[in-house]
Amino acid sequence: MASLTFRNIPEDVKRLFHQRAAANGRSMEEEGRQLILEAVRPQGQPARESIGQMIYRLSRPGYDLPDVPDSPASYAGQEDE
Question: Where are the alpha helices (DSSP H) in 8-73?
Fold first, then answer.
């Protein structure tokens, strides 16, 4: 993957960027990555989510897994009592 370095950013801009990243629950690096992706991605094209991002999103409090109906396999190996 490529790397970018930005120099000569005014301190007030850096502080505001840091606040924005924190408000979005991201590091400054991830916030910058997301801004660049949004800027260059063609309109209407959905963002690709990495496996790490998906696991993080699904592990957050408040996410409910869908109910799965019972099936005969659900009871495999259980003895009748």
Answer: 11-23, 28-40, 51-59
pLDDT tier for residue 12 given thresholds of 50, 70 and 90: very high
pLDDT for 7 beyond 80: yes
CA distance 25 to 27: 7
Diameter over CA atoms, the chain: 73
User: What SS3 state is found at 72?
Assistant: helix
Q: How many CB atoms lie within 10 A of CB 70?
A: 8
On whether the CB atoms of residues 21 and 28 are closer than 8 A, the answer is yes
CB atoms within 10 A of CB 34: 14
Phi first, then psi: give them for residue 72, nearest 5 degrees: -55, -30
Whether residue 29 contacts residue 14, with contact meaning beta carbons closer than 8 Å, is answered with no
